[in-house]
Amino acid sequence: MSGLLGGARNAVNPLRQLTIDQLRQRTSLKWREYPDDVLPLWVAEMDVPLAEPVARAITDAVARGDTGYTAGTAYPQALAEFARRRWGWDGLAVERTALVPDVMHGVIEALRVVTEPGDAVVVNCPVYPPFYEFVAHAGRRIVEAPLGEDLRIDLGALEDAFRQARAGGRPAAYLLCNPHNPTGVLHTADELAAVASLAERHGVRVVADEIHAPVVVGGGRFVPYLSVPGAENGLSLMSASKGWNLAGLRGALLIAGPAAAGDLARVPVDVSVSTSHLGVIAHTAAFRDGGEWLDALLTGLDDNRRLLAALLAEHLPAIRYRPGQATYLAWLDCRALGLGDDPATVFLDRGQVALNSGLAFGTGGGGHVRLNLATAPELITEAVRRMATAVA
Ligand SMILES: Cc1ncc(COP(=O)(O)O)c(C=O)c1O
């Protein structure tokens, strides 16, 4: 590592590096779904250049022609060390991990080993829309446990959902989103321990999607689900995809608690083999060497969160925004604007700004939009200006 030089370069806010003209040259979903007069602040991609250690690892691999099948344990080792450094958690055992092609395919494989077709999967709505689609595709049923008014897990609603899911003694799973997308809520150790104890009492298996774990700001601390008491038979999915914008370089890890090692062994071997070697190289480099870059990103995201809150207070005070401590997503309650169930359509049609419609996030999503904060402050300012124009 180039010592001081590297440090100085990495301290630069990655969210301020690219111009809109450069971003419009991108060919990925965020910048290609809508015409050029639309400002896209929707899908969870970040408007950042690739972190230098990741770019170097990939280009070195390409230069070597190192594009075969993936091998070894460098990825889980790098994540285990990251977990120790960042979260003070030393419970990630490399031998209880499996490579999976990406987080959602890992979620599905985990659900397949702990439930049977037709069984229920509990989710805390509103939640990341593919939870609904992937679970249905795997032939499982969704049971919703709505978040509370405070956007936190409502243990009473969760218990009701667990009872419903386990009716007739069938196996059931709980797909926990930790931290939560779209609200950005960071679950506390106490909340997660309560979840584990409830799951244990009702015989529900917990699968935790922890893809947003590295993206925590405002003095918050991510608590891995598997680190809380009672979570020994849990399964977790982690990846560098969100923290370092690696959706195009896919690769994730399925991690088993000590009492779930047997479940991990039942994941078909072809699942791990389907993982991209270049993806694994990228994710490994991110967790191993991408800490400084991540810190610079998190500082920029924290600024953006405050900027959005200030802009909304000034230009759209009817929108309710409760900044969470995690993810780069802002969940905006637009119901007081009187735009109906789908304000995203109004902001798109009248303001040329693309946000995610809350409707796709399940019960409780109506009247809400999700805004992606992982962009330049100027674009957030422009987005709010457009949103205000749309409702003027
Ligand atoms: C909660 C959550 N899980 C999974 C994913 C997708 O992960 P992957 O592309 O690795 O399947 C996302 C992407 O935004 C997400 O927010």
Automatic annotation (TrEMBL):
CDD domains: AAT_like (cd00609). Residues 52-386 form the Aminotransferase class I/classII large domain. Its cofactor is pyridoxal 5'-phosphate. It holds the Pfam family Aminotran_1_2. InterPro entries: Aminotransferase_I/II_large, Class-II_PLP-Dep_Aminotrans, PyrdxlP-dep_Trfase, PyrdxlP-dep_Trfase_major, PyrdxlP-dep_Trfase_small. Keywords: Lyase, Pyridoxal phosphate. Its EC number is 4.4.1.13. Belongs to the class-II pyridoxal-phosphate-dependent aminotransferase family. MalY/PatB cystathionine beta-lyase subfamily. This is cysteine-S-conjugate beta-lyase. It comes from Micromonospora acroterricola.
